[in-house]
Structure formats: structure tokens, C-alpha cells
Specification:
The protein is of the alpha+beta class.
């Protein structure tokens, strides 16, 4: 809980942990999930938050510096849902390029 000894960094950490726990609730609905790829400046510029995600999810978190990684990932998921072959659409090249551009893994 909050007290007079609570410092701003404690509040920030609590907020980051709250977000990670919400992701864990979502991840729990995906039992096939074996790894998480994080992208964006928030995770890339804050290795502590990436570690919080890895700890809470109990999964490796790979950080990717690929531009527009979230949009690319959403496109791959959409193509899979439409039963399109990623090989025919070029999305497998995107996925391989995204994997090759991963910057680090946190466990």
C-alpha cells in the first residue's frame, strides 16, 4: 500500500507491474504461447519493464527494434485468420526479418 515512505519510483514500478499482470491474464488464455516479442520505445528504452514482463509472464521476452512490428504482427495474424498462406503473401519474409532484427531476450 501507499505510505509516506512510498517514493515516485515505487508508484511507477507498481503501474508497470499492473500492465504486465494484465498481459498475463490475456496470455493465460493462450496456452500455446511459448515466447513474447516486445516492441516499441517503452520496452526498448526500459529494460527493467521488459524484465518485469518476463518475470510476470514466466516466459522469455525478446525485444525487437523492427519498425512497425505491432502492425506487421497484426497483419500476419489477420492473414492466418483468413487462412492465407504467409508464404504466398510475403508475410513469412516479414516474420523472418522481424526475428532476425530482434535485439535481445530477457528471461
Amino acid at each position: 500500500g501507499l505510505s509516506f515512505e512510498t517514493e515516485p519510483r515505487d508508484v511507477v514500478r507498481s503501474a508497470l507491474e499492473g500492465v504486465a499482470h494484465r498481459f498475463a491474464e490475456i496470455a493465460a488464455r493462450m496456452p500455446e504461447l511459448e515466447e513474447v516479442v516486445g516492441s516499441g520505445g517503452a520496452l526498448l528504452n526500459n529494460p527493467d519493464w521488459a524484465q518485469i514482463f518476463a518475470d510476470v509472464l514466466e516466459l522469455p521476452v525478446t525485444l525487437s527494434a523492427v519498425d512497425e512490428a505491432s502492425a506487421r504482427g497484426a497483419a500476419v495474424v489477420a492473414l492466418e485468420r483468413l487462412a492465407s498462406s504467409p508464404a504466398r503473401t510475403g508475410s513469412s519474409r516479414i516474420a523472418r526479418r522481424a526475428s532476425a532484427s530482434a535485439t535481445s531476450t530477457t528471461r
